[in-house]
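Appendix B. Raw example, untouched.
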Amino acid sequence: MKVAKAFCSIGNIYSQMGMLPEALAMYQKDLQITAHNLQPDDLRVADAKYNVGLASCRVGRYSEGLALLEEALDIRIAVLGPEHASVADALVCIGGVHSCIGHHAEALERYQRATSIRKAVLGPDHTAVALSLRNAASAHACLGQADPAIEECGEAHAILLHRLGPDHRLTAEAKQLLVDVAAGNPRARAIATAPPSLA
C-alpha cells in the first residue's frame, strides 16, 4: 500500500502543477493497487475512486468521472453514514461537476443535500455551510430562480461576514455574487460553471 500512497502523492503534485493527464495516470495506478488489496467498501478505495473521478472530470471525461465519484460517495455513505461531513464534501464535488456540464438541477440537488448535512454536522454558521449556500445560489441563478438565489447568497454572505470579516476574499466574492444575482448579471453563473478542484 505504500506504493499506492506514493502514486497518490505524485498525483497530487501533478494536479497542483496543472499537469492533469499525468495526475490522472498516477491516481489510476493508486486505484488499481488499492482496489486489488483492500475490500471494495474501504474508505481508502473510496478516496482513490474520488481522485480518479475528479481528475477524469478535470480532463473532460465527465461520464466516467461522475460514475467514479458516485461510487466513492456510495462507499462513504455506507461506511460513515449519510450525515457525515465527508459525504457533504463529495456531494459538493459532484454538484460542481454537474454544474460544469450544464446539469444545474442535478447540481442544485447535491448542493442542497450538502448544505443540510453541513448545517447538521458543523452548525448553521460554519464557513463550509456558506460555501454550499453560495454554490446552491449560483445553481439557482443558472436555472433562472432569482429569489432563492438571492436568499442563499444573502445567508452565505452573512455567515462569511461574521466568520471571516469584511476584508476576506470569500466574503467579498459572496457579496459580489449577491450583487450579481440581484442585478440578473450573468457573472452569477460563473461559479456554477467553474471546474471543480481536487479536494
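End of appendix B.
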